[in-house]
Amino acid sequence: MKRLRLSYQRACAxxxxxxxxxxxxxxxxxxxxxxxxxxxxxVDADEGRELNRRFRGKDYATNVLxxxxxxxxxxxxxxxxxxxxPVVAREATEQGKPLAAHYAHLIVxxxxxxxxxxxxxxxxxxxxxxxxxxVLGRLGFPDPYADEER
Length: 150
Hints:
Blueprint: E1 3-11, H1 20-30, E2 35-43, H2 45-56, E3 64-68, E4 77-84, H3 85-95, H4 99-114, H5 122-138
Parallel strand pairs: 1-2, 2-4
Antiparallel strand pairs: 3-4
Helix pairs in contact: 1-4, 3-4, 4-5
């Protein structure tokens, strides 16, 4: 049985953040099995940049960061997703996507990272993208990769 405990943190002034109920639905849909305790934190560009610099060595704010806790398997999945609201909003506009659809995609993407999925090579990327499409489709969102050429 899948069970999720969600902590929702709003640490920025962005007005158009998804409501907690939507975030809970998206994170739960992306939890493939077991139990999880996840914090989803919405931040401004300064905090997003600082976290990306500190933990990934990249000096810019990125859309989503995933931090999984290294705990024994019996403890269940525990981790944090950090979404940089101004980056997500800019990307949604640039890509011509509804903001909610982009947030849903990034939360699903981040949840898959917490569960060990990655996109370091083509095979991993194809597997992860297929899972994202499946979860997002079940949530009623369009394929986020439909406009990309391979």
